[in-house]
Amino acid sequence: MVYLAEFVGTAILILLGGGVVAGVSLARSKALNGGWIVVTFGWGMAVAMAVYVVGATSGAHINPAVTLGLASIGDFPWSQVPGYMLAQLAGAFTGAVLVYLVYLPHWKVTDDPEAKLGVFSTAPAVRNLVANFVTEVIGTAMLLLGVLGIGANSGFVSVEGGADLSGLFTNGLAPLLIGLLVLAIGLSLGGPTGYAINPARDLGPRIAHAVLPIPGKGPSDWGYAWVPVVGPLVGGVIGAWIWKLTGFGA
């Protein structure tokens, strides 16, 4: 059940996140040229909705970097890491296929192959693989710090008289706060690379771009593809260990 939840949650993430990129990028979409604020807000809400749907079942990692980061500090069993990651990758691929279907008439009328690729995967504004890698590491480390911080604060929510509101915080507010965290990362750190901060989010849809019959789609830029995969995995571990070594959650 947890693997199914990760599959569904990641599919929701890409359906709504990739969908907002398609909306602002593809010709004759009603959201065409909506801009960066629309994209970052759409991705933030995509994360929040995915966490609301599957958080109670699997914890809603929906991101291999989160899974690996948590496992590296002992907060998640290593035995479940491969299953989570495979489910996330499959969910991301499926979500991308759904975006393709939703915008089916728009691929043919869109001339720009880079805009089409951008619906599925990230690309750097200035191509410098070392700098792009560092950006993804820092952004994902911030993601893990934020996620762990939001989770830790759920145990400290109460009102005068001792009423415990931690359940309300964890189940009601935390998913929205995580979405706002992703919004903040996108606004502040997303400009250089498009902030993948999630290997499945980039790799699954990039594979979909490669295999789907998209008219005039161009190449899938596999020369860059390692950056939004390896960078977030490294950043996730770093962010989790910063959290653990500082003792903030103790």
TrEMBL record:
- GO CC annotations, alphabetized: plasma membrane
Predominant place of localization:
membrane
Q: How does it sit in the membrane?
A: Multi-pass membrane protein
The question of whether Protease is a record keyword is answered with: no
| Top-level taxonomic group | Bacteria
Extract the GO molecular function terms from the UniProt entry.
glycerol channel activity
Q: Which UniProt keywords apply?
A: Membrane, Transmembrane, Transmembrane helix, Transport
Q: Establish whether keyword Ion transport is in the entry.
A: no
The membrane-spanning stretches of this chain are 6-27, 34-54, 84-104, 125-152, 172-197, 222-243
Q: Where in the cell is it found?
A: Membrane
Its family remark reads: Belongs to the MIP/aquaporin (TC 1.A.8) family.
Q: Which NCBIfam families match?
A: MIP
The name on file for this protein is MIP family channel protein
